[in-house]
Write a structure and sequence with these properties.
Elements (H helix, E strand, L loop, with lengths): L2 H8 L4 H11 L4 H10 L8 H8 L4 E2 L5 E9 L2 E10 L2 E11 L3
Antiparallel strand pairs: 1-2, 2-3, 3-4
């Protein structure tokens, strides 16, 4: 895959750094690893600042300050989002959400 190449070319310290870079700089790549992010337990318990450091500040904060969403893609008249739920500034749940877009 492209991760070893990126590690050598851009001098990343870890796969974690590469994934963060791809998420922030190449939004079209998000769809390729969001499923793995949702299934992973690595995010549970992380502080909001750690989430923002990895995923960036380009997020939507809902009416509830304890829920952040990051845009993934729009496909087939649907928008896909990665959602983080927080309790006392710590991640309690990670999921994705699909919203229908107008005709």
């Amino acid at each position: 895959m492209m991760l070893p190449l990126l590690t050598k070319t851009l001098k990343f310290k870890s796969d974690h750094d590469i994934r963060s870079f791809l998420w922030k700089k190449f939004p079209a790549s998000r769809k390729y690893f969001v499923h793995k992010l949702v299934k992973s337990t690595e995010w549970t318990g992380k502080h909001k600042s750690e989430i923002e450091s990895f995923f960036g500040s380009q997020r939507s904060v809902s009416d509830f300050t304890d829920r952040w969403s990051y845009y993934i893609e729009t496909r087939n008249k649907k928008r896909y989002y990665l959602i983080f739920d927080f309790e006392i500034d710590r991640v309690t749940h990670v999921r994705y959400k699909v919203k229908s877009v107008g005709n």
